[in-house]
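tool_call: predict_structure(chain=1)
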Amino acid sequence: MSYKLFFSFFIFILLLSCKSEHKFIINTPKKIQINKELSISVSENNNTTIDSVQFSLDDKKIEGNANSATLKINDYKLGKHVITAIVFYENKTAKISETVYFLADSIPKIYTYKIINTYPHDKGAYTQGLEYFNGFLYEGTGKKGSSSIRKVDLKTGKILQQKDLDVQYFGEGITIFNNKLYQLTWQGGVGFVYDLDTFEQEKSFKYTKSREGWGLTHNGEKLIKTDGTEYIWFLNPETLVEDSYIEVYTNERKVEKLNELEYVNGLIYANIWQQNTILIVNPENGKVEGVANLTSLKTIIKKEQKLDDDDEVLNGIAFDKENNRLFVTGKHWSKLYEIELIKK
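tool_result:
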């Protein structure tokens, strides 16, 4: 057989084999709001007869018909989910999967604000975390060589107590839980636990699933952490391991760069890095319930001092639960504000 004839025959066999291959496809929307019903079906490019299909969502079986299924998803968390289908045909099986993203069922409520009180704030503080506890502010600051944890007098802004972090670390979010102060580092892969009264370090912990350390708060049961993505992680308070997570989504898209956190009346308040905004997030499913635009607050502070618009942004949320007071500040801001959020 000549070379050309052999080559032509080879191409013919290859095309024939490709044509005879089965290619099953899961038909499902790429994105869907959770107030809608999810419809799933399977088809095949060569119209092969499908005997039946077994569907599952995130490894949980879905009841369906021969090759389709529908599912109510209003109780699911937002974000990425995986649909798997085991296809039965011609006494054979094929397993295929597809990704779908669940979105919030409504647009976020929009909030504005009013200033209730203004307090002095150390403009040398590159604010990464802020907490109100027993009448005092506690603050975590960042940047290598100037990271610290601090106890601060609210009315005067005076630093009452301070512990500097080792120069190798870039300090991030803090929170106070069970009379301990917890502090994250940015890319160090480690967090620290301090005695609240003495600021003496008691132990450290490593991140096991989350990428980096950004913001930190707690809900009275678990620590809550961001890592610069759309994920919010829930940490076991004993082991400090990330037990679970939510993904933060609006009705249209995910929201990334989640930073400083505060737990306020059952909801998570989150700064977004480089945006002078606070998101109000449902901790059960990740839905953005509200958005507070505080851009004009930065405009006010810029009348008194020069700020780097890309870096010295709003970052710092503290809540006085007993007196229902909300405090905010920013990186290197010379003022700390008590504000009230007002729904538009």
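agent: The chain has two domains: 20-103, 109-343. Proceeding to next step.
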